[in-house]
Amino acid sequence: MKTNKKIVCLGGGIGTVNLIKGLKEYTDNITVVVSMADDGGSAGRLRRFFGVPPPGDLVSCIAAMSEADKEMKSLLTYRFNGNRYGSDHTLAGHKLGNLILVALTSITGSFNKAVSEMQRIFNAQGKILPSTDENISIWAKTSVGEKVYREENIDLGKFTGRIDRLYLKPSSPTAPKEVISALLDADAIIAGPGDLYTTIMPTLLVPSILSAIKTSNVKKIFVVNVTNKVFETPEFRIDDYVNAIIKHCKSRVFEYFLVNNNFKSKIPAKYKYQYDYVPINGVTENLRDKIIKEDLIDENFPLYHDSEKLAKAIVKSI
Questions:
Q1: Which residue among 1, 195, 238, 273 is the one 20 to 30 A from 89 at the CA level?
Q2: C-alpha to C-alpha distance for 34 and 182, rounded to whole angstroms
Q3: How far apart (Å, rounded) are the C-alpha atoms in residues 256 and 198?
Q4: Residue 239 near residue 196, CB atoms below 8 Å
Q5: Strand extents, DSSP E, the chain
């Protein structure tokens, strides 16, 4: 049965897509706030070539929330053959939905109007919103003092040491008014799952977004990833995720942390050197009553959450 609670989801990557695919069965009042820091793959190439904000995660979320017929949704996610990290001047590797959003930006004269129009055309439920009005980028300092620039380089592990601190550029971008209104009017705020430093943190660090989250008195849940990406969160435990949030946000921000407790499925051999499970043991005593443990894993592809399991656990928790 639908709860119709107003839920705001922060992130934008495949983790958020899996989350909202499940949540939309429970409520029609979903607002997705999507990170604008992406600069890799098709989105990054279009960002550089046309000077637009990155369309990729917005398009993926629109596709996940779309009630259009199967063929229309397939158009959004169709990717042309070729290297998605190829030349900025070629069609190869681009996602068609990204190109449509760029075209709509030219037609409407506004990226935000284009996002709204695309949701209408593809009958996407809820609201999918960019986290910032400006084009932003991210950079990080590592544990050995190295500075690493661009989301793509952080995502692909092109640095030495571990990520110690993440920064936005510009450091204080503005968020759309709709985003702040949704956060202040929400019944629940969910961050994650998704890459901690390249998807979730760039959204949390937008000053007005972080302020609105802290101001809100609703249930706030951080969904910890099923697996760690060895470049980004190597050997992270739950406490490490919590401490990273405290370090960057100056408080724990989230009341509860939802974690997977099913480790029966083997990580596919193809990925076992890139990913490992986030362990649930060794949580510090002051956090133990804030951890919600559930079987959340997609047993067919155990790097990620199962949409139905995740949505059910969240709805039960709020």
A1: 195
A2: 13
A3: 22
A4: no
A5: 7-11, 30-34, 127-130, 137-142, 147-149, 163-169, 188-191, 219-223, 227-229, 256-260, 275-277, 291-294
| Statement: 7-134+176-317 belongs to CATH 3.30.420.40 | no
- Report which residue type is found at 84: R
Spell out the domain ranges in the chain. Answer: 7-134+176-317
Q: Which residue has tokens 């190597």?
A: 234
* pLDDT of 1 strictly over 80: no
Do 227 and 241 form a contact (C-beta atoms < 8 A)?
no
Neighbours of 76 (CB within 10 A): 23
The per-residue pLDDT for range 41-59, each reduced to its tens digit, is: 999 999 999 999 999 999 9
Task: Specify the pLDDT at position 131.
Answer: 98
Which amino acid is present at 144? V
Q: Whole-angstrom Cα distance, residue 58 to residue 66?
A: 12
Rounded to 10 degrees, the C-alpha dihedral 50/56/58/64 comes to 150
- Among 245, 256, 237, 234, which Cα is nearest to 210's? 245
222-124-6-137 Cα dihedral, nearest 10 degrees:
40
Amino acid 315 reads: V
State the Cα–Cα distance between residues 42 and 91, nearest whole angstrom.
Answer: 9
pLDDT, one tens digit per residue, over 97-150 is 999 999 999 999 999 999 999 999 999 999 999 999 998 999 999 999 999 999
3-class DSSP assignment, residue 191: strand
Task: Count the neighbouring beta carbons within 10 Å of the beta carbon of residue 96.
Answer: 17
Bridge partner residues of 148 (DSSP): 140
For the segment 266-287, what is each residue's pLDDT rounded down to a tens digit?
999 999 889 999 999 889 888 9
Q: Give the C-alpha separation, 21 to 308, whole Å.
A: 8
**Where is 66: in which H helix or E strand?**
none
